[in-house]
Amino acid sequence: MLQIPARQNRRRIYLMRHGAVSYFDGETGRPVLPEQVDLNHEGRAQARAAGEAFAAAGVRFDRVIVSGLPRTLQTAQRVLQHSGQAGLAPQIWPEWQEIRGGRLSEIDDAQLEQAFTGLQRSPVDEAQRFLNGECIGELLDRVLGGVRRLRADPDWDCALLVLHGVVNAAILSHAISGGQRLMLGGWVQSPACINVLDLGDAPGDWLLRATNLAPLQGLHAQDRATTMEALYAQYLDYRNRRRR
Hints:
The chain is α/β, with parallel strands linked by helices. 34% of the residues lie in helices and 14% in strands. The chain has one domain (18-243): Phosphoglycerate mutase-like (Rossmann fold, 3-Layer(aba) Sandwich), CATH 3.40.50.
Protein backbone atom coordinates (compact mmCIF):
# COMPACT_ATOMS: atom_id res chain seq x y z
CA MET A 1 0.00 0.00 0.00
CA LEU A 2 1.29 3.43 -0.90
CA GLN A 3 1.92 5.71 2.04
CA ILE A 4 0.39 9.15 2.12
CA PRO A 5 3.29 11.63 2.12
CA ALA A 6 3.72 13.80 5.18
CA ARG A 7 2.53 17.37 4.92
CA GLN A 8 5.30 19.63 3.64
CA ASN A 9 6.43 22.26 6.13
CA ARG A 10 6.63 25.22 3.78
CA ARG A 11 6.67 28.87 4.73
CA ARG A 12 5.15 31.66 2.67
CA ILE A 13 6.97 34.65 1.15
CA TYR A 14 5.15 37.56 -0.46
CA LEU A 15 7.88 39.21 -2.51
CA MET A 16 7.00 42.72 -3.68
CA ARG A 17 8.70 45.37 -5.71
CA HIS A 18 8.39 48.93 -4.41
CA GLY A 19 5.74 51.23 -5.89
CA ALA A 20 6.32 53.61 -8.78
CA VAL A 21 8.87 56.41 -8.45
CA SER A 22 10.09 59.20 -10.73
CA TYR A 23 13.78 58.69 -11.44
CA PHE A 24 13.84 61.85 -13.56
CA ASP A 25 12.55 65.24 -12.45
CA GLY A 26 9.33 66.11 -14.28
CA GLU A 27 10.31 69.75 -14.91
CA THR A 28 14.04 69.64 -15.61
CA GLY A 29 14.40 66.04 -16.73
CA ARG A 30 17.43 65.67 -14.47
CA PRO A 31 18.07 62.26 -12.88
CA VAL A 32 17.15 61.86 -9.19
CA LEU A 33 19.58 59.96 -6.96
CA PRO A 34 18.24 56.38 -6.64
CA GLU A 35 19.17 56.38 -2.95
CA GLN A 36 16.83 59.30 -2.28
CA VAL A 37 13.86 58.92 -4.63
CA ASP A 38 10.41 58.68 -2.99
CA LEU A 39 7.17 57.08 -4.14
CA ASN A 40 5.21 59.27 -6.50
CA HIS A 41 1.42 59.64 -6.50
CA GLU A 42 0.97 56.51 -8.61
CA GLY A 43 3.32 54.52 -6.39
CA ARG A 44 1.39 55.47 -3.27
CA ALA A 45 -1.86 54.36 -4.90
CA GLN A 46 -0.27 51.06 -5.97
CA ALA A 47 0.99 50.34 -2.45
CA ARG A 48 -2.45 51.09 -1.02
CA ALA A 49 -4.08 48.72 -3.53
CA ALA A 50 -1.62 45.98 -2.60
CA GLY A 51 -2.42 46.46 1.08
CA GLU A 52 -6.13 46.28 0.38
CA ALA A 53 -5.60 43.07 -1.63
CA PHE A 54 -3.78 41.47 1.31
CA ALA A 55 -6.57 42.57 3.66
CA ALA A 56 -9.26 41.14 1.38
CA ALA A 57 -7.42 37.80 1.28
CA GLY A 58 -6.95 37.73 5.06
CA VAL A 59 -3.14 37.60 4.77
CA ARG A 60 -1.28 38.25 8.02
CA PHE A 61 2.47 38.78 8.12
CA ASP A 62 4.77 37.95 11.02
CA ARG A 63 7.88 39.41 9.35
CA VAL A 64 8.30 42.44 7.07
CA ILE A 65 11.68 43.16 5.49
CA VAL A 66 12.75 46.11 3.30
CA SER A 67 16.06 47.09 1.75
CA GLY A 68 16.24 50.38 3.63
CA LEU A 69 15.97 52.60 0.55
CA PRO A 70 13.09 55.08 1.03
CA ARG A 71 10.93 53.66 -1.75
CA THR A 72 10.83 50.20 -0.17
CA LEU A 73 10.11 51.50 3.33
CA GLN A 74 7.35 53.82 2.08
CA THR A 75 5.75 50.99 0.11
CA ALA A 76 5.85 48.61 3.08
CA GLN A 77 4.38 51.19 5.43
CA ARG A 78 1.43 51.85 3.12
CA VAL A 79 0.88 48.13 2.54
CA LEU A 80 0.83 47.52 6.29
CA GLN A 81 -1.46 50.51 6.91
CA HIS A 82 -4.03 49.39 4.35
CA SER A 83 -3.87 45.71 5.27
CA GLY A 84 -4.64 46.53 8.91
CA GLN A 85 -1.16 45.67 10.19
CA ALA A 86 0.34 49.10 10.81
CA GLY A 87 1.75 47.98 14.18
CA LEU A 88 4.23 45.63 12.48
CA ALA A 89 7.61 47.36 12.09
CA PRO A 90 9.64 46.62 8.93
CA GLN A 91 13.18 45.31 9.35
CA ILE A 92 15.97 46.75 7.18
CA TRP A 93 18.25 44.27 5.40
CA PRO A 94 20.76 46.31 3.36
CA GLU A 95 22.02 43.22 1.51
CA TRP A 96 18.78 43.42 -0.48
CA GLN A 97 19.32 46.94 -1.80
CA GLU A 98 18.96 47.36 -5.55
CA ILE A 99 21.87 46.63 -7.86
CA ARG A 100 24.18 49.65 -7.83
CA GLY A 101 24.86 51.59 -10.99
CA GLY A 102 27.89 53.69 -11.85
CA ARG A 103 28.21 57.11 -13.48
CA LEU A 104 26.09 57.34 -16.59
CA SER A 105 28.38 60.02 -18.03
CA GLU A 106 31.23 57.49 -18.17
CA ILE A 107 29.37 55.03 -20.43
CA ASP A 108 30.23 55.19 -24.13
CA ASP A 109 27.31 55.97 -26.41
CA ALA A 110 27.80 52.65 -28.22
CA GLN A 111 27.38 50.75 -24.94
CA LEU A 112 24.55 52.80 -23.49
CA GLU A 113 21.57 50.67 -24.54
CA GLN A 114 23.33 47.47 -23.40
CA ALA A 115 24.13 49.11 -20.05
CA PHE A 116 20.45 49.89 -19.49
CA THR A 117 18.82 46.74 -20.85
CA GLY A 118 21.50 44.02 -20.76
CA LEU A 119 20.07 42.35 -17.67
CA GLN A 120 16.88 41.45 -19.58
CA ARG A 121 18.59 38.87 -21.81
CA SER A 122 18.98 35.29 -20.52
CA PRO A 123 21.18 33.92 -19.28
CA VAL A 124 22.87 36.89 -17.60
CA ASP A 125 26.61 36.46 -17.18
CA GLU A 126 27.91 37.16 -13.68
CA ALA A 127 30.42 39.60 -15.17
CA GLN A 128 27.62 41.75 -16.66
CA ARG A 129 27.63 45.17 -15.03
CA PHE A 130 24.61 47.38 -14.43
CA LEU A 131 25.12 50.91 -15.75
CA ASN A 132 28.88 50.53 -15.37
CA GLY A 133 28.49 49.73 -11.68
CA GLU A 134 27.91 46.54 -9.71
CA CYS A 135 28.15 43.24 -11.57
CA ILE A 136 25.68 40.36 -11.32
CA GLY A 137 28.16 38.20 -9.41
CA GLU A 138 28.49 40.86 -6.72
CA LEU A 139 24.72 41.21 -6.55
CA LEU A 140 24.23 37.46 -6.19
CA ASP A 141 26.80 37.30 -3.38
CA ARG A 142 24.78 39.61 -1.18
CA VAL A 143 21.23 38.75 -2.30
CA LEU A 144 21.68 35.00 -1.87
CA GLY A 145 23.40 35.65 1.45
CA GLY A 146 20.16 37.32 2.52
CA VAL A 147 18.15 34.32 1.31
CA ARG A 148 20.32 32.01 3.43
CA ARG A 149 19.85 34.32 6.41
CA LEU A 150 16.07 34.25 6.00
CA ARG A 151 16.00 30.48 5.53
CA ALA A 152 18.08 29.91 8.69
CA ASP A 153 15.72 31.98 10.85
CA PRO A 154 12.97 29.70 12.24
CA ASP A 155 10.93 32.49 13.82
CA TRP A 156 8.61 33.36 10.94
CA ASP A 157 5.94 31.66 8.88
CA CYS A 158 4.62 34.39 6.55
CA ALA A 159 7.00 37.13 5.43
CA LEU A 160 6.52 40.24 3.31
CA LEU A 161 9.65 41.33 1.44
CA VAL A 162 9.50 44.74 -0.27
CA LEU A 163 12.55 45.00 -2.48
CA HIS A 164 13.62 45.94 -6.03
CA GLY A 165 13.24 44.70 -9.59
CA VAL A 166 16.69 43.20 -10.14
CA VAL A 167 16.91 41.89 -6.56
CA ASN A 168 13.55 40.18 -7.01
CA ALA A 169 14.77 38.71 -10.31
CA ALA A 170 17.76 37.20 -8.50
CA ILE A 171 15.54 35.66 -5.82
CA LEU A 172 13.03 34.36 -8.37
CA SER A 173 15.81 32.89 -10.53
CA HIS A 174 17.22 31.15 -7.47
CA ALA A 175 13.81 29.79 -6.53
CA ILE A 176 12.65 28.41 -9.87
CA SER A 177 16.03 26.77 -10.50
CA GLY A 178 15.77 24.75 -7.28
CA GLY A 179 18.20 26.88 -5.32
CA GLN A 180 20.91 27.42 -7.92
CA ARG A 181 23.12 30.49 -8.18
CA LEU A 182 22.13 32.13 -11.45
CA MET A 183 20.34 35.12 -12.91
CA LEU A 184 17.71 34.64 -15.58
CA GLY A 185 16.78 37.65 -17.67
CA GLY A 186 13.29 38.49 -18.81
CA TRP A 187 11.68 38.85 -15.40
CA VAL A 188 9.15 41.67 -15.41
CA GLN A 189 8.52 43.29 -12.04
CA SER A 190 5.88 45.98 -12.31
CA PRO A 191 5.76 48.66 -9.60
CA ALA A 192 4.22 47.29 -6.37
CA CYS A 193 3.81 43.85 -7.92
CA ILE A 194 3.42 40.77 -5.72
CA ASN A 195 5.14 37.40 -6.19
CA VAL A 196 4.02 34.42 -4.10
CA LEU A 197 6.63 31.86 -3.09
CA ASP A 198 6.62 28.89 -0.73
CA LEU A 199 9.91 27.93 0.92
CA GLY A 200 10.50 24.39 2.16
CA ASP A 201 13.10 22.96 4.51
CA ALA A 202 15.35 21.51 1.79
CA PRO A 203 17.59 24.02 -0.06
CA GLY A 204 15.94 23.26 -3.40
CA ASP A 205 12.36 23.14 -2.10
CA TRP A 206 10.74 26.23 -3.61
CA LEU A 207 7.29 26.67 -5.13
CA LEU A 208 6.43 29.69 -7.27
CA ARG A 209 2.68 30.19 -7.01
CA ALA A 210 2.31 33.57 -8.71
CA THR A 211 4.49 36.30 -10.17
CA ASN A 212 4.12 39.97 -11.09
CA LEU A 213 0.60 40.36 -9.70
CA ALA A 214 -0.08 44.10 -9.84
CA PRO A 215 -3.40 45.04 -8.16
CA LEU A 216 -3.99 48.14 -10.32
CA GLN A 217 -2.79 46.68 -13.62
CA GLY A 218 -4.85 43.53 -14.05
CA LEU A 219 -3.70 41.69 -17.17
CA HIS A 220 -0.99 44.30 -18.02
CA ALA A 221 -2.95 45.05 -21.19
CA GLN A 222 -1.15 48.37 -21.79
CA ASP A 223 2.35 47.21 -20.86
CA ARG A 224 4.92 46.29 -23.49
CA ALA A 225 8.12 48.08 -22.38
CA THR A 226 10.21 47.19 -19.35
CA THR A 227 11.18 49.62 -16.61
CA MET A 228 14.76 49.82 -17.91
CA GLU A 229 13.60 50.44 -21.49
CA ALA A 230 11.46 53.31 -20.23
CA LEU A 231 14.35 54.70 -18.17
CA TYR A 232 16.67 54.46 -21.17
CA ALA A 233 14.23 56.55 -23.22
CA GLN A 234 13.94 59.10 -20.40
CA TYR A 235 17.73 59.34 -20.11
CA LEU A 236 18.11 59.93 -23.85
CA ASP A 237 15.50 62.68 -23.62
CA TYR A 238 17.43 64.27 -20.73
CA ARG A 239 20.69 64.19 -22.71
CA ASN A 240 19.00 65.71 -25.75
CA ARG A 241 17.63 68.54 -23.61
CA ARG A 242 21.09 69.30 -22.28
CA ARG A 243 22.56 69.50 -25.79
CA ARG A 244 20.00 71.99 -27.12
